[in-house]
User: What shape does this take?
Amino acid sequence: MIKKAPQHIAFLHIPKAGGMTLRHILKRQYEADAIFEIGEDINGDIERFRTARITERHRTKLLMGHMTYGLHRFLPGAVTCLTMLRDPVSRVYSEYRFLSSNENHSLYSTIAPLTYHQYLELDPTRQAGNGQTRLLSGSTYGNRIGVPGIEPMNETHLNRALDHLKRDYPLVGLLERFDETLMLWKEQCNWGYPFYEIKNISERPPRALDASEIEHTRSKNRFDLVLYQEALELFDANLKKQSNSFHWRLKAFTLLNKTYRQLKHYGR
Assistant: This one.
């Protein structure tokens, strides 16, 4: 039976968790005039969406970008909330690599001279310490719904993030389970095949973090570690609900997407 497409989709893009690749996939599923994308002017775009006419928000089938939990409530009618989480240690290190190697980024001159330990302590993006908890908790700056806050995270924020995750993000995705996530979303949201190429890769190749760097990252992200574990359990429970035919379709998609990526590569 073909599922009915959701009335509205709100994709909360967590930095360095596959979001740019996902944005390219999502844009192919909806007409351009039915998409509201929060771009580089994050705070400005969020405010523009909050204050948009109801007719504009009503025709928005897809709201996506960097934002905190809660902005989806400005969409009229039923909303399906999507987000993708990532193992906190690899996510934070990925952000450091990206920002310290991307000369076009506004924070490059600040972050490039820093060691990884210094970056964790400075946390200039407010994403190096419990950044996933910050966004999913609905922490806001100046009570402006959707605009990420800057206050330190605590147990209250974690509990809110866990509650929001379980209540509003039953289809939570995991970067480490990317293809499985895409197929779950495809079938729940009645999309076409979500073929993709990986986008926004850091120019600095990864290295193995030493024990002190791993422990430092974990200590700065203890709430994110709890949140990620909960997401992992939700994800596995969701997969267990799927039929055997789902797993065959997943294998077929993975093989087809490998061919798609090869064709795109050779076509350049």
